[in-house]
Amino acid sequence: MVFARFCFVPFVLIVLPIRGQIVVREESSMFGLVTRLFFNNGLCPSQMGRNGTCYTAEECSERNGIAEGQCADGLGVCCIFEITTCGGNVVENCTLVSGTRLNGQTCMFTLTQCSSDICFFRLDFDSLTLGSTLPSNGDCSSDTISFSAPTVPILCGSLSGQHIYLPASPGSVDSFSLNFGLSAVLALATAYQIQVRQIPCGRSFTPPLGCNQFFFGELSGQIQTYNYMMGAGYHLNNQNYDICVRKELGICQIGYLAFPGIQGFAFGPSFGFSMLSLNGDMDCVKDYILVPNSANLATPVCQTNGAFPATVTKYCGYYLNCMELEFTNEIIGTTDFRITVVTDGSDAFFMMGEMTGFQLQYQLIPCSSVGKTIVILP
């Protein structure tokens, strides 16, 4: 009997340079040298202007996605994942949740991590208006969006263009719910679209822990409270969340300037109807923002409750200014890149103008410019 002798070539992996999303690999096998093409399943723009994930056509079909254009130099398709039912399981990165308001229904969407290194879910509210944009005294009493994460507040009103981060919980189920009330006034069909992205741990675009909103990649930008509506809405009650800005390379400070007029910054004071700037623990008790260790960049000293500290943390009233009882907005500077928004459970005794919230222009200040005159144009 003659035995054939097979010679197996040891496995050899050669990784050639990456071209875009494509990785070319040459693998040695018993059949000779085999060239294989792989590409990263990253985000891609679809031909319809939507964000998708780059997969092969077969993978996209197997995952029940919709191919909208090509990616990876034509070797893959930009795969769109969309849930159009009332409720469902979000398992793919960059999934669109869309539909129309259903009177009296609750639509719960579970969030399943697509890999073990996911630390956050980011929800971008492309189009989302829940209930009245003038909620009764700031309360979310009808349509709302709620979250399984206890650190994330319930939201309502006009949320289009805003976003929120939810911490991923390993070993447990994360979710968010669209809760539609029974109000006859709100029974008219209202379309919504929410984009859900999964954010891995330890990346440059991963938010710090505790940040419900995170802005990065720009030296300047705008931040505003939920349901702000260019100064025509109400800020929401029972809020306690952090807005963070990434400290970019070479940056030492950040400056904030409220947009002109009382609509740029209006958090109801704890007493009366003062139309001036207020700060400090005595004046800012119910609704306020926290800007740690901050001061007007133009002046070295603040004023609060008759004292003159170098910095303050709490702000409320009608103008953003570390000098109390002023009627102008000033550029507030700090080395802390986090703002905390705090509102209590009632605004029943405040007038509408005191409940607007804020819209701030932020500017990152290079270390070389600290101590110099800073100009921020809203």
Question: How does this structure look, described?
Answer:
The chain has 378 residues and is mainly β. It folds into 2 domains: 84-206, Jelly Rolls (Sandwich); 218-369, Spermadhesin, CUB domain (Jelly Rolls, Sandwich), CATH 2.60.120. It has 1 helix and 28 strands. It has one helix spanning 57-62, and strands spanning 12-15, 22-29, 32-39, 43-45, 51-55, 66-71, 76-83, 88-90, 95-100, 106-111, 118-127, 129-130, 144-147, 157-158, 163-167, 174-179, 191-200, 211-215, 220-224, 240-245, 251-258, 265-266, 277-279, 288-296, 312-317, 332-334, 338-342, 357-366. Strands 18, 19, 20, 21, 22, 23, 24, 25, 26, 27 and 28 form an 11-stranded mixed β-sheet that branches. A hairpin with a 2-residue loop joins strand 2 (22-29) and strand 3 (32-39). The N and C termini lie far apart (89 Å).
| Uncertain runs | 1-20
Order of helices and strands: EEEEEHEEEEEEEEEEEEEEEEEEEEEEE
**Secondary structure: helix percent:** under 10%
The CATH class of the largest domain is identified as Mainly Beta
Can you tell me the number of structural domains?
A: 2
- Main beta sheet strand tally, sense and closure: 11 strands, mixed
Key terms for this structure?
globular, 2% helix, CUB_metazoa, 378 residues, eight-stranded mixed beta sheet, mainly beta, 28 strands, signal, eleven-stranded mixed beta sheet, Jelly Rolls
How would you sum up this structure in a few lines?
The chain is mainly β and 378 residues long.
